[in-house]
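Handout, page 2. Input:
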Amino acid sequence: MKKAQFFYLLRRGFFAGGGGEWSTLVNAFKTRVLADGGTLESESCIRDDVKYLIQNPEPVAFTGLLNDYSGAAAAYSLRLLDNTYTGNAIKVRRASDNAEQDIAFSNNELDTATLETFASGTDAFVTTWYDQSGNGVNATQTTASVQPQIVSSGSTILQDGKPIVDTSSAIHYMELDGFAFSSLSIFITATYDNGATEGIFISGGEDSTDRWDYGPRTTSDYRFLLEESNNDERISSNDNYKDGVRRLFTADYTHIGVNGSNVATGSLSTPIPVYANGWRLSGRFFGSYVAASNKFQEVILYDSDQSSNRTGIETNINDFYSIY
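Output:
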């Protein structure tokens, strides 16, 4: 091919359809050619342009889990889940003077450097865990004594090298502001700690006869369950996971799963009841509050059946956290 034909094809974009790295390189080369007026300056110009483009590749654009699997009803994480989300990760309260500050993301993960600088050698607690779904369903806790902890004596609390929101000491939980849904798919990255309390991850309702729970239960029995008490329905297994090991827990109306494998199957009715007293992360009400012993890194809730996307979502989470 003559040089004039080569540049003509570059200008017309005929080499742009190959895909992958070749397409990126050719399109970038085309841009440089057009910047030179679309003419061949010299053979060395071609070599210089190609060498420059190889040594200075375009950075790969970040895409988050919610970019690939959109439509979440609420999404809480200590990593960035959506490249269009411009808000903060959490708001924290410093124990020394009760001052509060928003903590953003740095390189798509929680900005622990800013968090620890703010904590200034003391403890810090989460007052708001911001919803990245775009629906504004923030997880909040205004009562200081009930707020989950994230910094201890100036250091971020970690689980397997990643920050956690820790509800494992006494009664700590968060309310989901304005949360309501009729269907459900759950993806939770969490640790059920070795405390004597329950491990219920998410619950709705406030009494023993009209309540919805998901997670490990240990006060009266040792089961891992998804339960809707009003209709006396549940999917459950005999596993309690009370060992302090981080896992990926999933559920929908036909299964509960752990680390990418089903541990129990069944069928629950829809829709989920609308509870006047709302929803919360960690623990449940059974006449009075029953505390849970959990450490959370990510909670993603869909108001839709995500069974067809389940494997892809699990893979995305596991790729980031290296759980199993």
